[in-house]
Amino acid sequence: MPIVLAACNDADAPEEQRVLEGDAEAGRAAIAEVECGVCHRIPGVAGANGIVGPPLDSFGRRQLIAGVLPNRPGVLVRWVSDAPSLVPNTGMPQMPLDKKQARDVAAYLYTLR
């Protein structure tokens, strides 16, 4: 069964959510590689059906990250790579993403509208 992406281009994100030097398609691949879908349901990522963390459908429409942080590109890039540095008691672990991958992941998440 083919995977259908409703949006996979960073141009689909509003101007204020565009991630400089972020590549949404590379972000989708990084999400699959580090297995974010073990905890989250993520549209467009095969096997991303986790129920531990919140589903990430419509992430680009959210005002807050983790219910406490403003949903802005710089914050999201830091969050996806090292969430505990921003919210120490979060269940989100530090992820093995370099800065480029974190920008790419953020770019993909903003396409989820």
Features:
33% helix; mainly alpha; two-stranded antiparallel sheet; 113 residues; single chain; disordered N terminus; Cytochrome Bc1 Complex, Chain D, domain 2; 4% strand; globular
The figure for the number of domains is: 1
Radius of gyration using CA atoms only: 13 Å
What is the CATH domain class?
A: Mainly Alpha
Q: Helicity, in percent?
A: 25-40%
Please report the distance between the alpha carbons of the first and last residues: 23 Å
- Average pLDDT, rounded to a whole number, is 90
Write the CATH architecture name: Orthogonal Bundle
Strand percentage: under 5%
Structural class: mainly alpha
Contiguous uncertain segments of 5+ residues: 1-8
Number of helices, where a helix is a run of at least 4 consecutive DSSP H or I residues: 3
Order of helices and strands: HEEHH
